[in-house]
């Protein structure tokens, strides 16, 4: 019976994002745009903190602007060097951590987004931009792209984690929060008990968006969740072995209640890493060769109160990352079946 349920779920999740004339499915066309809606009913009442949810690291950095000033997240030394045009071209190779746009990530199944934002020097209109060394697109444009997807997929739930703020005063924060309200309106989920948050309760209340705001400003708005509710321990290593050890250790220390948990399955370049692979960039120097080993670790995990919850990766399209994480939820279904025996 369990095998039949799995087969049916695979059929439901095999959505064609952009069908080709021949009617055949290619790997780039099969997406997970409605994977949450397609989960078996037994999982609808589980807390979201118990589900396996794929996420992306520096989610917005599929495009950065080499013509804009270097961001305030960089040192003065880097800013001076960046006056040379070639330096910005090299910075771009190390600032970009994704290939897919927000829409494409959502269609692939990504539901957690790691967001860093900043005002831009010289801008008088209080506009806020995504940032990772170089400035990305306007936050407003990204929010509208996400909202468009959610309107078309009303049972999909997303996590927007605003965890780094640069060159932002109270006016900038108010402007950003107003943009968030304008973009999502009634889709915003008020902060509440983590354990009470299930797919069913969110669907019943027509909520689709959880906003985490790592700044005391969150206290002024009921729909902003405090950053402490979504810890994301960072290994800060170039070694896959050390990364996996860190992920295992932090999972074993995970609080059983009261928060979500992000496993950052990412490698972080050192200065010497960048120096050695200056022209190759992050993808070719560090990610491409190590991602398969990281994915092998993901395949061995199990979701649940003390298991994995949200897992993030760089370049989520290079391997079958999102589908692998989503498939881990089948293990929860097996637990339910065993409990009935």
Automatic annotation (TrEMBL):
What region holds the Phosphatidylinositol-specific phospholipase C X domain? Answer: 42-214
Q: Which domain of life is it from?
A: Eukaryota
**Key word Transferase present in the record?**
no
Keywords in alphabetical order, please: Hydrolase, Lipid degradation, Lipid metabolism, Transducer
A single GO BP term for this record reads: signal transduction
| GO molecular function annotation | phosphoric diester hydrolase activity
The record's annotation in SMART domains points to:
PLCXc
Keyword flag Lipid metabolism: yes
PANTHER family linked: PI-PLC X DOMAIN-CONTAINING PROTEIN 2, PTHR13593
Q: What is this protein called?
A: Phosphatidylinositol specific phospholipase C X domain containing 2
